[in-house]
Specification:
Order of helices and strands: EEEHEEHEHHHEHEHEEHHEE
Strand order of the largest sheet: 6-7-8-3-9-10
Helix content: 25-40%
CATH class: Alpha Beta
Distance between the termini: 30 Å
Length: about 260
Amino acid sequence: MIELRDVTFRWPDEPVILGNVSLQIRPGEKVVLLGANGCGKSTLLKLLNGLLDPEQGTLWWKGEQITRAALREPGRATAFRRACVLLFQHPEAMLFNPTVRDELAYGPRQLGLPDIDARVARWADELALTALLDKPPFLLSGGQKQKLALGCLLALDPELLLLDEPSTSLDPATVGWLVDTLIHSDKTLVIATHNLSLAAELGERCIVLGLKGEILFDGPIRMALSGVSLLEKAGLTHRHKHRHGKVEHAHVHAHDWE
């Protein structure tokens, strides 16, 4: 479905964030992108979404190369933007309409999709936002903003969902809903997280990024999560020292920060 070939990315006058990254995502896959903060997960998702241009390498969507010029072609750009969507880590970056209702309707309206009112009603109900439809988004809680941003994407009925830390700001019950919704979805998913316990529930395949933006592992998620040395190299665990009297020993800790 989507592919990066030998992609390198850096910001001007900055070190390389991602180096020589190649990966393929097949239709229907549920892929967890695992890595410590700052390793390039968000950058990788933006490259897959065509929001950033690689310094080197190429992006391919269903066998066709996606370039800046291609995304200036009206029909092609519209088709790609509807099919491949990105949930930002901070939902405030996605919300700018006067009401929740307007937010949910904005994408379908811009793309000329049918049944806009039905789409709004469906996802407002699914995300427990119905009572908030006429409320300004800036008055919502952090969790409600996160749900609204996700609803704006789901209302487009996309083929590929790129999700950057989707559980941020969500309460445990809503995280449970999110997991159930995603794993039973027919959508192709790439979900970036550093939450090891959540990762185990979200996908079957795991791509682990190293601290220098390199791919350390690409394979079954259970294998990745059981690889202590792999997780330590990726910065997802640390060795914690304990002292009992005069005896000191160390063992590996994994933490799930949100």
